[in-house]
Every structure is written in C-alpha cells, then in structure tokens.
Amino acid sequence: MVAATEVGRQAGGWAAAIDRVIAVHLEHPDEGEQGRRLPEPVFQAMRKEGLFRLWVPKEYGGSEIELAPFMEAVERFAKQDAALAWTFAILAAGPLMTAYLPADGALEIFASGPNVPIPGAVATKGRLVPAVGGYRASGRWPLGSGSHYGEWISATGMIFDGDAPRMGPHGGPDIIAFFVRQEERQLIDTWDSMGLRGTGSVDFAIEDVFVPETRMFPLFSTPSQVAAPLYKAGPLALFSLAIAAVMPGVARHAIDAFVEMAMEKTPTLSQTGLAVRPTIHAGVARAEALLGSSRAYLYEVAQEITDCLANEPMITDELEAKRRLACVNVATACTKAVDSVFELAGATPVYSGHELERCLRDIRTARQHLLMSPVWWEKTGQYYFGRGLGMP
Questions:
Q1: What is the CA radius of gyration of the chain?
Q2: Which of 189, 190, 333, 359 is the most buried (most CB within 10 A)?
Q3: Residue 241 — left, alpha, or beta (φ > 0 → left; ψ -120 to 50 → alpha)?
Q4: Alpha-carbon distance values, 200 to 61, 188, 334, 385 (Å)
Q5: What is the pLDDT of residues 311-331, one digit of tens each?
Q6: Predicted confidence (pLDDT) per residue in 136-194, tens digit
Q7: Are the beta carbons of 187 and 231 closer than 8 angstroms?
Q8: How far is the C-alpha of 290 from the C-alpha of 286, rounded, in Å?
Q9: How many angstroms separate the CA atoms of 192 and 370, rounded?
C-alpha cells in the first residue's frame, strides 16, 4: 500500500503545474467553446509542464504516477472546465497503452522523449489485413477527443482473413489496439455537440496504412510488458477511472457556482433571497451528499486497485465489479447533483454561456460515454447472481 503522504506528494507535485495551465486557460475563456477544440496555447502549456508523461512507464522515461494522483489531476482541471479536463484525461492517459506494446514499438513512439500526448478512440471500427511484418489498417473512428494534437494516435480494430474477422483464443474476434502517425490520419469535422464542445472530438480516418507488429497488441488479452503494478489494471479500467474523475470536478464547479449565484439572487415577485430559503439549503445539502459519497467511493476503489496490484497479477472479478460500479455511480450521482442545482436556480442559467448551463451540458454529454453508461448497472449487477461480468 502506498502511504498517504506519498500519494499527497505525487498529487501535490503536479498541482502547481496544473494551476499554471489553468491560468493560461483563463486567458482564453471562450476559445474552446467557439473553436470546438482545446485552445493551442493551453495545449502548449500542458506540454511545457510535462503533463503528458504522467502515465508514461518509467522504462520509457515517464513519471508513472499512481492511479489516485492522476485522477486528482483530472478532477482539478474539471473544477475549472470539463472540456479542458476531458481532453487532458484522453491525451495524458493515452500513453499508458504503450505499456502493452513490445519494447521496440514503445521506444519508437517515445523516440523524441516521454512527454507525448496520444489521442485515440475506443470504437472498434478498424479493419486490419495481414501484410509482411505487420498489417494494413483502414477505418473511420468517431469521438476522437484531442485528435488535433500529438504525433501519434491510437485506434482499435479487428484482423480480417478475407471477409471474416479472425477468431481469438477466447472464441470471439480479438480487438486489436494499434498506433499510427498523425500524418497518416485524416480528421473529419463532425464535432457539433451539445456539451464538451472544447474537446475537438472529431472523427478520424486512415486508409490502407501499414502498421508493424511492434505497434499493436490484443487489447483485452495482452498483459503489461513493463514492471509497474499500475498497468496490470488493464487499459479499460485505467481509462474508465481517468474520465470518471471528470464528473466530481464538474459537480463541484456547479454547486459552487450555484451557491455564489444564490447569495445574490432574489427571484422575481419574491421578497426572499434564495440564500435564506430552507428548500435551497436542503437542495444544496443533497447535492453535496451525492457528490461527496460518490467521489469517496470512486477514490476508495482506486486505492483498493492500487493495493491489490501491489501483490496480485491482475484485478480480481470482485474488484472489477466495484470498479465498474464506482464509475457508473459517480457519473449518475454527479449528474443528478448538477441537475438539481440547475433546477433550483430558476431561469437565470438558461442562457447560453452561464456557468451552470455549461456544467449541465458538459456533464450530460460526458455521461453518454460508454464507459460511464447506465448499461453497467445491469452488466455488473449480474455478477452478484453468479452470472459473471457482462460486456455491453
């Protein structure tokens, strides 16, 4: 188990760097919404601070910080802006995928140093056809958050032998993760969204691009190729926890913004300000409880995973069930918290650009991601009846 002081040191060591990036973001408050992507100066500030090496394995020169401190970094950004946090989570979590590559492939990706942002997409939209020394890849992927940035991009697909996908040892087709250079992909501007507008989550496509075997691996069956216990959690678990940490940050932002607004607001035709109304007090208390309890469970499970992997080769099924529940629970509870304070605010936040309006749009959009989908209630609940851990 990592001592609390060490976790605090890891998180605190990056807090000042994150605050410096936030200061740059404050200089471009609406640029992300209007440009529908992370502002270039903010991306460059993240790179300057070395934030893209947080989850790069130490073997390749990275910082390899632990799970909870990484989540705290995401949450710290989310308290400022959800799209900022989401893009950071994707770009800085992407390099963890290199922990499952052969060393030659990872070293190629980090040839210019470990501070490498790696966007990507999880949808299995790629087609891989065998070629000498590797495969030729084609496909189009939606929701490529942060895809405007970085030198590499990751994607997933299936190997095809003729018209049929190749079957893996488990009886179904293997899902293959692979990396291509940014200049080998085409961006397609599809990102006209309700929320998270500043994430640049466009489609990207590649056409008949050669991928060597050193830059690919079966996503769900490849063990970590590096020494750190962190990566034994697997890509799905780590990505899920990283983006789930956006949710309590947005809820914190929304509650604080509502309280600040309520301190100044007296509704139309009323002689009583919002801040003195018992209904408002109770509503904020409920929102705080939703946020606090779901956040505590999320970080409790993250610590349990860290403790487990210090001694075990992988997450147990029981702990994986808790991980899924923690992610869907924090998404559900924090969305409800934001909904509730928005409702309490009356007509004030219905105008575009209001802090609560932005929080509502952003958290509702984030909630739609597969890794936080309500489907996990069902697919995890069946585990408690001896029916295994289902997939959506």
A1: 21
A2: 359
A3: alpha
A4: 28, 11, 23, 41
A5: 999 999 999 999 999 999 999
A6: 999 999 999 999 999 999 999 999 998 899 988 777 888 999 999 999 999 999 999 99
A7: no
A8: 6
A9: 19
Q: Which of 238, 71, 175, 244 is nearest to 391 (CA)?
A: 175
CA pair distance 73, 85, nearest whole angstrom: 9
Domain 117-218: homologous superfamily in CATH: Butyryl-CoA Dehydrogenase, subunit A, domain 2 (2.40.110.10)
Q: Which run of H or of E encompasses 125?
A: strand 120-131
Domain residue ranges in the chain: 4-100, 117-218, 245-385
Question: What is residue 224's DSSP assignment?
Answer: P
pLDDT, one tens digit per residue, over 182-202 is: 999 999 999 999 999 999 999
Matching CATH number, 4-100, of 2.60.40.10, 3.10.20.90, 1.10.472.10, 1.10.540.10: 1.10.540.10
From residue 278, alpha-carbon distances to 250, 283, 285, 292 in Å are: 25, 8, 10, 21
Match 């802090």 to its residue by tokens.
355
CATH superfamily of 245-385: Butyryl-CoA Dehydrogenase, subunit A, domain 3 (1.20.140.10)
* Bridge partner residues of 126 (DSSP): 139, 157
